């Protein structure tokens, strides 16, 4: 069997399983600007229909791509964007020398992304999508797309604490001075941060860390990374975030926490910093000279 016949047979066998319609003509079009999840990926065109079978830009591709934005924002894997966008927004000219297999991400990439990101979805009460079953993707490394990771500061990124799914931390509305000082002594770090919540056009909530994060006890955290770290914690621990941050309000918190032995960050106490309660103000002032 020659290469063309082999490729055609392969397409016929695999296309139904992967949602690729051989009877539907394909074309490459510019990735629309409103498709924010696949901007800055190193290419500017996408195939229609895409590899998930979506054929309408306005009706399917753009709105469904937004479903992935919360997961991308968590940074659950360095290549999660490359993996997802290779499925929903990638264009490669099809010829008999470039079979359908080569359009798909490699199974090894899928497994790496799934192993890191599935726990994040589980934390939010969701499961890894059946459409992204890694067994559907080719195992031959020379017959699939293997995006290269970005190597800039990769050695430093490995050393930084990473947020993870956890039980919701304790929230004390009116703590005593002793309670606050004990938390500062027991935990690795303590920061103050303003947490806010707004509603997206889709109706989903979006949580943000507004303004600067102020350190009371820095511990293992780095100033330039901490705001992003807390933002990721909110995005991963959405059930907790929904309880902690009320809609339409900005709440100032004193947050304390620790870095676990596996390098993950866990928040242990959250104290709303109310003007009527002076315990946090006094504790922050006394901390520099306090002996645990």
From TrEMBL:
InterPro entries: Frizzled/SFRP, Frizzled_dom, Frizzled_dom_sf, Netrin_domain. Residues 23-147 form the FZ domain. One of its GO terms (cellular component) is extracellular space. CDD domains: NTR_Sfrp1_like (cd03580). Residues 165-292 form the NTR domain. Disulfide bonds join 110-134. Its main location: secreted. It is found in: Secreted. GO terms for biological process: canonical Wnt signaling pathway; cell differentiation; non-canonical Wnt signaling pathway. Residues 1-19 form the signal peptide. Keywords: Developmental protein, Differentiation, Disulfide bond, Secreted, Signal, Wnt signaling pathway. Transmembrane segments: none annotated. GO terms for molecular function: Wnt-protein binding. Pfam families: Fz (PF01392). Belongs to the secreted frizzled-related protein (sFRP) family. This is Uncharacterized protein.
């Amino acid at each position: 069997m020659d290469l063309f016949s082999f490729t055609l047979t392969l397409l016929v066998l695999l296309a139904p399983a992967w949602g690729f319609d051989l009877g539907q003509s394909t074309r490459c079009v510019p990735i629309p600007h409103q498709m924010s999840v696949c901007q800055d990926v190193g290419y500017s065109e996408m195939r229609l229909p895409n590899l998930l079978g979506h054929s309408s830009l306005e009706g399917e591709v753009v709105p469904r791509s937004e479903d992935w934005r919360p997961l991308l924002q968590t940074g659950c894997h360095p290549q999660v964007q490359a993996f997802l966008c290779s499925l929903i927004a990638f264009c490669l000219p099809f010829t008999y020398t470039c079979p359908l297999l080569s359009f798909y991400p490699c199974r090894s990439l899928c497994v790496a992304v799934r192993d890191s990101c599935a726990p994040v979805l589980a934390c939010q009460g969701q499961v890894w999508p059946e459409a992204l079953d890694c067994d559907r993707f080719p195992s031959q490394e020379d017959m699939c797309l293997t995006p290269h990771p970005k190597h800039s500061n990769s050695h430093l990124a490995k050393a930084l604490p990473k947020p993870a799914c956890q039980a919701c931390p304790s929230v004390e509305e009116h703590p005593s001075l002793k309670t606050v000082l004990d938390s500062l002594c027991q935990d690795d770090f303590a920061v103050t941060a303003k947490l806010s919540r707004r509603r997206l056009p889709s109706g989903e909530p979006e949580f943000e860390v507004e303004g600067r994060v102020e350190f009371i006890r820095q511990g293992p955290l780095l100033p330039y990374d901490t705001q992003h770290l807390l933002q990721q914690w909110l995005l991963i621990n959405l059930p907790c975030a929904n309880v902690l941050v009320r809609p339409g309000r900005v709440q100032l918190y004193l947050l304390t926490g620790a870095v676990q032995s596996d390098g993950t960050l866990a928040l242990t106490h959250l104290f709303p910093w109310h003007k009527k309660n002076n315990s946090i103000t006094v504790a922050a002032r006394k901390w520099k000279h306090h002996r645990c």
